[in-house]
Amino acid sequence: MIAVMIGSADWLFRQGFTEYLQQVEANRLGFLISNLETTYQKQGSWDFLQNDQRQWHEFLSSQRDKDIPPPDNRLPPPDDNGFSPEDYPPPPDALFLGNRLRLLDANHNYVVGAHFEEKPIIRALKVNKQIIGWLEIRPNEVMTDELATTFIQQQKKAKYLIGSLALILSIFAAWLLARQLLLTIRRIVSGVKALAAGEYQTRIKANGHDELGQLSQYFNSLAQTLQKNEVARRQWIADISHELRTPLSVLRGELEALQDGVREPTPERIQSLHSEVLALTTLVEDLYELSLSDAGAMNYHKENINVTDIVLEIQQQFVSRFASRGITLREISNPHIQLPVFADARRLYQLFSNLAENSCRYTNEGGFCEITLYRTKQTVIVTFQDSAPSVPQTALPKLFDRLYRVEKSRSRESDGAGLGLAICKNIVEAHGGTILAYQSQYGGLSIQVEFPLLLE
Q: Residue 386, CB half-sphere, CA atoms under 13 Å: how many?
């Protein structure tokens, strides 16, 4: 680029400078033009010069630009050979332009002067504001002025010097820039290799706010996300292993006792084994449902439905179950409210069943559960509230995490793997809704589900 820049600048400078010198040279013809106009006015025509090269040469020899110092007109003294001043030849063309000048009449017809094909520089000759002829000068292609030639050489040296300095500076700047870029790229490459090797705790320096700095920040965010996912995955495997190990250990112990003859295969023991198998089956089914939900493979057949109808059906089915545990399931205060939504009725039934089962399982005997229905201009709200025990404020955001259970305040007696609320969250989000958990006004837990209202 520097070479192209210097070459282009040199060519443009030469062209411009040459044209400038030619214009200056042409402008210096003002004295000659003035004399030609004066002579024409005296003669009345160009006949005195018509095709007379000698007369034209003598006329030019008598001219001198005001800017050119006059020649020494003193005649030299006689020399030793006896030549007198009159014997010397006439002075040469004072303007040194004889072979580059051409005179034309007003109709552009040739009068006298040199013959050339190049495009000339033209100056008009006028008398009383009327054009009487044209004076043409052929551009000088060769730089004869010593001062101009010296100036061009100086400019050329200066350009080469400046170009060399610019090249050195650009190479140095490019080296610094490449070094800085490569350092950042090497850090990112090293970090990517570490991530590929499973070292998710890897972080790199995120210097600056340019594209590489932003890429470094994105890399750190990715590494942090992968690290969190890895921790969650390990915790998930550990929790699943624990949940599966408990019923399997019970089954194994009971079966080995029966095989060894320690225990008799009574109907009670067989029923206990059956209960453990049911608990294991429920856990596996919940895991399967959750995996389908995570993969987006759950089947949803959405249609226009009334949420109130589903909630009333859940309320009727769970009354006896709540009563068996000494808990009261209160009647819905507004059973005729219309709550239209666009949803899958089967999945909403699963959602509300899980919420009712969760309240029934974790509410103390003698307590109660209350279901409220409400609608706004744009949403449908269903809330399940129960009495003590409650959930600590710090544990509320974790209730919808898979396999999470509050062991102290709302511990389960036997079954329940902590997957129900996680499945509920996935179902609600698949319908474009939200689910929240907060402490109930009755001393227990309140879970609120909100769906977009189907506008008629």
A: 27
Q: Give the domains, in start order, of the chain with CATH numbers.
A: 7-144 (no CATH), 211-295 (1.10.287.130), 303-452 (3.30.565.10)
pTM for the structure as a whole: 0.49
Burial grade of 342 (CB within 10 A; 0-12, 13-18, 19 or more) = middle
Considering only residues 291 and 329, tell me which one the structure prediction assigns the higher pLDDT.
329
How many CA atoms lie less than 13 Å away from 345 in the CB half-sphere?
14
Q: DSSP assignment of 253-266, as one string? A: HHHHHHHHTSS---
Give the closest residue to 433 by CA, choosing from 452, 455, 454: 452
Position with higher pLDDT, 124 vs 99: 124
Q: What is the DSSP track for 77-100?
A: PP-TT---GGGSPPP--TTS-GGG
Query: Nearest Cα to 348, choosing from 307, 381, 386?
Result: 307
* H or E stretch covering 437: strand 434-439
Vertex 146, ends 64 and 56: CA angle to 5°? Answer: 30
Please, what is the Cα angle at 201 between 197 and 207, to 5 degrees? 105
Q: Which of 82-91, 154-163, 181-190 has the lowest mean pLDDT?
A: 82-91
Q: Integer distance in angstroms from the first to the last C-alpha of the chain? A: 69
So what's the pLDDT on residue 295? 58
Q: Are 148 and 21 in contact (CB under 8 A)?
A: yes
Q: Tell me if the bond preceding 389 is cis, omega within 30° of 0.
A: yes
CA dihedral 359→362→365→371, nearest 10 degrees, is -10
Q: What is the DSSP string of 278-296?
A: HHHHHHHHHHHHHHHHHHT
- Look at residue 342 in the predicted model and tell me its pLDDT: 94
What per-residue confidence (pLDDT) applies to 85? 43
For residue 189, what are the CA distances in angstroms to 195, 200, 259, 307? 10, 14, 60, 54
> DSSP string covering 333-389, please?
S-TT---EEEE-HHHHHHHHHHHHHHHHHHSPTT-EEEEEEEE-SSEEEEEEEEES-
Alpha-carbon dihedral sign for residues 431, 434, 439, 441:
negative
Displacement of CA 401 from its chain's centroid (Å): 35
DSSP assignment of 100-155 equals GEEEEETTS-EEEE----SPPEEEEEEETTEEEEEEEE----S---HHHHHHHHHH
